[in-house]
Fold this protein.
Amino acid sequence: MLYRLRRKISGTTVFMWIIGLGILAMVVVGSAQTLASGRYPSDQWLVLTIYGVAQGSVYALIALGYTMVYGILRMINFAHSEVFMSGPFIGYYVATALDEAGFLDRQPVIGLGIVLLAAMATSTTIAVLLERIAYRPLRRAPRLVPLITAIGASFFLQYTFRGLFGSGVKGYPEIDQLKGYWLIPGTQFGVLKTQGVVIVAAVIMLVGLYLFVQRTKTGKSLQAVSEDKDIAALMGIDVDRAIVITFIIGGALAGAAGVLYALLFRQVNFFMGFFPGIKAFTAAVLGGIGNVVGAMLGGLFLGIAESLFPNLVLDGLGIPAPYQLKDALAFILLVVVLIFRPTGILGERLAAKKA
Amino acid sequence: MKKTFALLALLVLVSTMALACAPKAKFQCTDKIGCVDIGPNEPIRIAYSMVVSGGDASLGTDTKRGVEIAIEDRKGELLGHKIEFFGEDDLCNAEGGQTAAQKLSADPKLLAVIGTNCSSAARPAIPIYCKAGIAMVSPSNTAPDLTDPNRPAEYFCYLRSCHNDKVQGARMAEFAWEKGFKRAATCHDGSIYADQLQQVFAERFKELGGEITAQEAVGPDDTDMKPMLTRVAATKPEFFYYPIFIKAGGQITKQAKEVPGMENVQLAGADGIFSPDFLRAAGDAALGMLWSSPDFSAFAGGYQEFLAKHEAKYGEKPLAPFHAHAYDAANMIFAAIEKVAVKDPDGTLHIGRQALIDALFATKDFKGLTGNLTCNPYGDCADPKIAVYQCVNADPDSWNPGADPDSNPKKIWP
Amino acid sequence: MRAQSRTPWSNTVRTGLLGGVAALLLSLVGLIEASAQRAIITGVLSMGHTLLLLIYVWAAQQAVRRLAADGERQPSRLETLTHGALAGLLISAVLAALVLLGQVINLRAVFINASPALFDLLTLKLGTWLGGGVLLVVGVVLGLLVASLSFIPSQFRKPLVLGLAAIPVVSVLASALFAIRGLSLLGALILLVLVAAASYLWDLKKGAVRERMNNLTPTGQRTTRWLRWLLPAVIVLLLPLLGKYPSEVLDNVGLYILMGLGLNIVVGFAGLLDLGYVAFFALGAYTMGVLTSPEIQWAGARLTFWEALPFSVLVATISGILLGIPVLGMRGDYLAIVTLGFGEIIRLVALSDWLKPYIGGSNGITRIPKAVVGPIELATPQTLYYLIILGCLVVAFVTIRVKDSRLGRAWMAVREDEDVAQAMGIDLVRTKLLAFATGAAFSGLSGAIFASKLTSIYPHSFHLLVSINVLCLIIVGGMGSIPGVIVGSLALVGLPELLREFSEYRLMMYGAALVFMMLNRPEGLMPEARRKLELHEAEGGAGE
């Protein structure tokens, strides 16, 4: 359908390409000028990339929740950002309790494991409750209706947490073993230990999920349901169960992402889910919404873009305070990607069948 | 159903009319913008327009409590009338400020408003209050233009009891220069407050002969500050001034310790993060950090008593640095009302609106907690004493500035 | 329906516990304590207690109704009373458990609102044990009272319930709009009697009035039809008489109606999900600011409001088209995120240090002049109201005309199925771009008025939440329907304004209301007739 459309609207297509190429040209010119100015040591770009990967892996974990729910229900689960927020929020109370008892410093692995479990359990509970109360009754309603309940649920959860636990910023306890750096061989720069842990944990979870979806029977039933609910039901797959499993996985990953996020930034707040949520959703779209691997790639791309590009591109164009514009830049890149690949990086499979 | 609604609407109207019967005045009002008559059993009404919800709620709560303590100090009474203190949440933005102003200024008995907290909320609100003849005293608007000699004539009812940004930013620059810092960088978060402060700081620092190596900006909800800090680090500053708010401020403080090249840069913030909540957000990284803030030790003798009352009433220490300014703002208003009110034998009060505003502008050598307040013709009343504080203990519970010379944070300049 | 397979007892227990959890939640988020400051009936009943009361009423009523609906036989009076009492008791039990727990451990370390003041409120200041006991008794009594309501013949029950409900409604409205703090006891009683009497009489005479209406002569009928239009029109024109603050609220509602009507074209008519609609609002406002404010030197022009207005609309329209082109080929959700991105880009760029020399950055643009009509400066909310009404009328007129035109039908065809629409010879590009352009134009108009209303604009005013709010209001109102936009704006912009004092809880209630609303009336408050039909057809088709 898209190709037909393209053939029909050559004028606007050309215009689109001009915009896209123009932005690309600016990116190239900006980068070239920044690099040519030689103001920044070359190692710095590596460091910025690592920061981006750490941030991006958190985005990727959250993005998985969006993309899986989208794949199966064709809806944007706006409240997923609150699923993400709730986990580390409850985890905070567990973590401070453990920290005060001194357990977190003595047994950091077990301690973190407990916090992680608490967070994942909370997020999963909230995700499943959401599905049960706010989405299931609306499965046959027009598509915008569940979007609005999701927005409503998102507000409700945010402000309920705020009411219950206060609006202040809460600082996560620091783990002594995770202070400092691991040096990258061959450079004098290091990876922060927290970042290292976050990246490794994210990779383990992403690979685990990929294997689960591709190899197990349950995973395959999820795929079947996301292809076609009615036919999957005819084939004897319990659609309700598949949907609940999707929400469980999405919730658990969001809870885990929340704890990793809290490790990186050591702050929780009732509003903390909002922006990461939007970013993760952007990442999911960037990768091709509905596609698990795409969400991972999208998350990493967005993380790196946010960390690297403002300095690399905008600096060369002479724009002051470039990090103020990092979100704007991220969205501009999204537009460019979608101009050239209207269904995201890996979105081909879904594009064929119009939702 | 429709009929029920119509009926309800009618009832609302009827009950309003029943409730809004005005007493007859014998007093002859000669005030240019009118008088407020307060019957024998009526309260004196003072309102607040502050931010008491959302991320900046600690600012509004802090100032609101300052006023509440001022009222309590008078046993809730003024000239034999009860003081009624109520108000609106202005959400710290322009729309909120305007809507709150429309609501409050519709009250014919309202004498004065204490607020707003945020300058963006003040700008659309001031003309509305002035038009209604309501005096407005802000405890925490710091944008310079509000009391500029060239300010619009429709700002005639507006005063403030706090210092403006020109003072604070410049003082921090002077401190940094005095202590031998030659290269400084700044960062703001897109709020008027932070932007003005860092701008004033940068200008003053350059004037003194220093070099500003970078002027960066972030978003108030950003979390990953390391890329920005890496960029700042590449310019090799010695001093980093980020007069922003708690969430982003905490992140910058923490992450500065993790970014190569920033470990040994002196970090400094302003009164927006001068609070125990900031220590909670920043953790141990706050140790050694500097703040510019009102000088609590220069506050008059009553300040320690004020703190004691605050702790007894609210179970915690002040949340932000403007409670004393709010306390002073309230007392300035009370004093002005006492000066201009005409009292009938039966206890009825008559207060001329213009007279009250004039009395406020005439405030001179008023003994407040924050010093001796004298208002200039453009509404700046503060006795600006800015000090620089240093964090000597990252534990939020130890927060007690100004209690004694060594309490945390410690005053180190002047 | 799973509920029917449960026994009445387990049903009542469930309802009671659910009510208990709701009461617990309201208590712990601090809503009860915060609203205890506001009196419904001065000295007798606070709003905090009213909220709890409502939960009791809901639960007991629900228990009794299920009981009556469930069994094959009429439940006896004793049964009804017991079920009501049980539901009330359970709610009280949950709250009493909270109070008790609060005495044993320091709940406040986690739940900041579990304060002594809350416990005092729940135990009526009688101390833990006595108060807890009283709480239980009160629960039972309330349950009994509510249950016994069902014994009253229905012609008396309805007036009574309406009268009781009128008290909190009138009290809240009066205090929100006119700064009256609570009704007096006498006032409340009078109100109760008046409303109850009116409702009773209306029920009695309803038939007679209808009959007389039907028996009118044709001319008479025509007059009444005219009146039906004239009366609301007159009321709308007279609304500013309510005062400054109500007018201010209505102005804000009006600005949202303007935006809502625009987004309604994009989302409701053409089916293009736009989450960045605030971008055009911002562009309209900034154009107005740049062209009229004396602060902005580089633009050279110092226009008046009316001179700048066409430019505002024009800039918004052109950017609507420009932003529309790259998203032409995108499907629903790709479109949503890209438009969301546009909205954020505009806000962030307006805020940036980069453009600060031109449009003020965080300082925004101030000293924007007000609109002037002849000798009158539209400075008060009352005068501004008429400007906004005029804008709404123009926009509504255009919308109605376009809706039934060829273009309007093309939009709806695109909404239903792009491929089919194209096959029928509809030019997709033109149709979609026209939708974006029209929507953007309305939003730009709204932004221009907004700028002159506030006289100063800041990037912070153009937050993503504005886009979300506009989207919510058109869907809550009923997508594609013009009265729906008006009702939606009143409900989602006007009502929250009245609850300003509880701003901390506003978004919580807003969120809960959105969910509740969508679950119970997915077609919206005032749905477009065609859409309503479709929706119910779909339900019928699904066999539910």
Observations:
- DSSP finds 22 helices and four strands in chain C.
- Residues 2-151 of chain C form one domain.
